[in-house]
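Researcher: Next entry: Peptidyl-tRNA hydrolase (Brevibacterium spongiae).
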Amino acid sequence: MTNEAWLVFGLGNPGPKYEATRHNIGQMVIAELASRIGTGLTRTKLRSNVGTGRLPTGSVPGLPGPRVVLGTSTGFMNESGGPVRQLADFYGIDTERIIAVHDDVDIPFDAIKAKRGGGEGGHNGLRSMTSVLGTKDYLRVRAGVGRPPGRQDTADYVLRPFSKDERTTLPIFVSDLADAVETLINDGLDAVQQKFHSR
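Model: Predicted structure:
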């Protein structure tokens, strides 16, 4: 049985070693959304930290926003698919209402893109989700982190903290990404693309 809730899952790795890295920006966005909703994230048996509630604003003024399930994995990036599947099954959420929030090296730092489906671009979290869900047809909010400088390995680059310059604008970037998620849920993919792709 399905319902009208949305599952927003922030990709990343567990523990303090990784929490400030580029690869964990999806989890930073989940923390921002949880703060807006007024909920915390609780560790569950579903291999996830989970918070639920309603968005503070909906598409109709004065009415509560849509119900959302916010999740981050308690495991590592390359095992993201299992927790996503478990949460979707537990809360009865269709794949078309799953949103993955993740870092993307193929777009510049501070850029925001959204799409449904497509490739994984070498991203192990997306690859795991596609494998376990059995489809690529889920939504993605892509947080640009830029390409690694010089010959630095991409895997090493995304597991490093943001640079000093990047950290000055990171809070605004994370807030804008949370806005993009809200717009996607309230107004649809076309709306979020029009509003944020030219940001």
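Model: Note for the record: The chain has six helices and seven strands.
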